[in-house]
């Protein structure tokens, strides 16, 4: 039986030049890495939180890590839509992330503080990519980033409120 000829995919032509797609995908890779590290930290804190605020923080952290988990796919799929592979794995994320891993199990309010700093770090990363998306007239990425910024800024505010007053 004769083998069917291979079909070659056409080059990507979505109205964004290849160099801009590469720069945006690289920025989104950093956003993905930051989000993944923050997801892992939040999930670990959910498992290990103790003290008088246990129930409140345990449930809050679960809501937050679930939201982060779902966001990972959205960011990775946008990288793929731009024509680039999405980074994955611990070593790749460690090299790309701006958020440090947590050593040991901190007290509950230190967990909250670390998550405030983590959400603000993700917001800063998203803002840096937003400039690239805006320059490339990349509305889907800009929309994704706007949504992520709203979530991370609101979450940082809510967590920070636990530390004030």
List the helices and strands and how they pair.
Blueprint: H1 18-48, H2 54-81, H3 90-96, H4 108-135, H5 139-163
Q: Any descriptors?
A:
single chain, 165 residues, 5 helices, 72% helix
* Number of alpha- plus pi-helical segments: 5
Low-pLDDT regions: none
Q: What overall form do the CA principal axes indicate?
A: elongated
Distance between the termini: 77 Å
Number of strands: 0
* Main β sheet profile: none
Give average pLDDT, whole number: 96
Query: How does the helix and strand content classify structurally?
Result: mainly alpha
The multimeric state of the shown protein is single chain
Order of helices and strands: HHHHH
**Proportion of strand residues:** under 5%
Kindly provide the radius of gyration, computed on alpha-carbon positions and rounded to a whole number of angstroms.
19 Å
Helix content: over 70%
